[in-house]
Automatic annotation (TrEMBL):
It comes from Methyloraptor flagellatus. Gene3D superfamilies: Protein of unknown function DUF952. InterPro entries: DUF952. This is DUF952 domain-containing protein. It comes from the Bacteria.
C-alpha cells in the first residue's frame, strides 16, 4: 500500500488540530466513524468531488505506516481501496502540510506528490 496518504482539510480545522496536538476529523469523518484519506492518485479526484471551489484548504501528507492497525484499506468510490483511519490522527505521523490553492481554472493546484 501507499507509504504516504493524504487528508484535505479546511485550514481553520487543521489549525485547531495543531493547537490540540491531534486531529479528530472533519464533520464527514465524525458522521462516518473514521477519518477519510486518499492516496496521491485519489487526492485530485477527492478534491474535485468533495471540495470543488473551496478555498483556504491544506493538504496533509501522513506516513501510513505510523498509523498501525487503526488504518484500514477499504473499498469505496469506484471499487478502489481507500485508506480510512479508525482513530484520531496523531500529529507525529504528519510528514507535511501545504496549502491547496485554487488555480485560475477553479481546480485545486496540487504539489508534486512524493513517491
Amino acid at each position: 500500500m501507499a507509504r504516504l496518504i493524504y487528508k484535505i482539510a479546511p485550514r481553520t480545522l487543521w489549525q485547531v488540530a495543531e493547537a490540540r496536538g491531534v486531529f479528530d476529523g472533519a464533520p464527514v469523518d465524525h458522521a462516518d466513524g473514521y477519518i477519510h484519506f486518499s492516496t496521491a492518485e485519489q487526492a485530485i479526484e477527492t478534491a474535485a468531488k468533495h471540495f470543488a471551489g473551496e478555498t483556504d484548504l491544506v493538504l496533509v501528507a501522513v506516513d501510513a505506516a505510523a498509523l498501525g492497525e487503526a488504518l484500514k484499506w477499504e473499498v469505496s468510490r469506484g471499487g478502489a481501496l481507500f485508506p480510512h483511519l479508525y482513530a484520531p490522527l496523531p500529529l507525529g505521523a504528519v510528514v507535511s502540510v501545504v496549502d491547496l490553492p485554487l488555480g485560475p481554472d477553479g481546480r485545486h493546484v496540487f504539489p508534486e506528490f512524493a513517491q
